[in-house]
Amino acid sequence: MNTQSRRQFMGSAAAGGLLAGMGGIIRPSAAAAKSKVAVVRNEKAISDRNICHPGETRKLVDSALEIVTGHANPKDAWTALGVTKDDIVGIKVNCNSWTFLLSTHPELVYALCDSLKTVMPENNIVIYERYTNELARAGYRTNKSSSGIRCVGTEETGGFGCGGITKLLTDQCTKLINIPSLKTVKGDFSGSLFLKNHIGSIPPNQMSNCHGNAIFCTEVCAQPDIKNKTVLAVCDGLRGTYGRGVPWYWKGIIMSRDQVAAEYVSLQVINEKRIAEKKKALPVKDYVSAAGSRFGLGTADPANIETVKREL
């Protein structure tokens, strides 16, 4: 993979998406039920000094899971998502220092892990990002041992396997949760959300391939080991941005089984704030639409999305 050219990588990603077209967990279509997206806020979950309240953050997770699955009991909710005690669940976070520290909040991720522990052993949970030191800097408890929740960078997981994806996903994880933070960017992307988050699942020397070619991120997500294993998408909106370098305490999360629908709704949340601040709304870019129309990753069609909002 380290010597693979950009064109070769993109070709293998597209082929992988086509081969996986009939499989996978999330496969919305016009004939299917609408993709449900939970939009849940809790003013008590985080202070305006970026201090999270673990108990109130857990309420966000439980409430969103109930909306998405129809089950108030966390164990029943995870079972409905297809998660079993024998699964290895990877949680792809985003440790971002873009203009200021804007990582996925550890408190939210560990609340999600506590919920997962109702159905599986904690050592079957693996929080990961590109580098272990990024996780540590963001406040995560790094751990490679055979006890406790694992938390490790891709550079320590055995390299990269099929399609240039980290072996953590190709060889270990059976299920996958995608959990970026709520933020906007300039240029080819409207926001740096779910589809862009898996740049951290490929070799560092391939990460720049998305510059000038946003569809590359969608092609990465179409790789079978990402496409077919994703069971849940969660956007951390406790603190995000609606413009470059502007902190915004939205104090909520967005959750769906369909990460494309979640991306679309997350952009609408950002746009509500931008309009309120008299800024131009961000467009839904082609790489988001193509995720559904070309790669079968979900739907960006608002007619096929059911958004359920809740204030705690």
**Oligomeric status:** single chain
> How far is it from the N-terminal to the C-terminal residue, by CA?
46 Å
Overall radius of gyration: 18 Å
Q: SSE order, as H and E? A: HEHHEHEHEHEHHHEEEEHHE
Shape: globular
Largest sheet: 8 strands, mixed
DSSP helical segment count: 11
Strand order of the largest sheet: 4-3-2-5-6-9-1-10
Which stretches are poorly predicted, pLDDT < 50 over at least 5 residues?
Answer: 1-31
Write down how many β-strands occur, each being a DSSP E stretch of 2 or more residues: 10
Structural class: alpha/beta
Residue-averaged pLDDT: 86
The percentage of residues in β strands lies in 15-25%
What's the helical proportion of residues? 25-40%
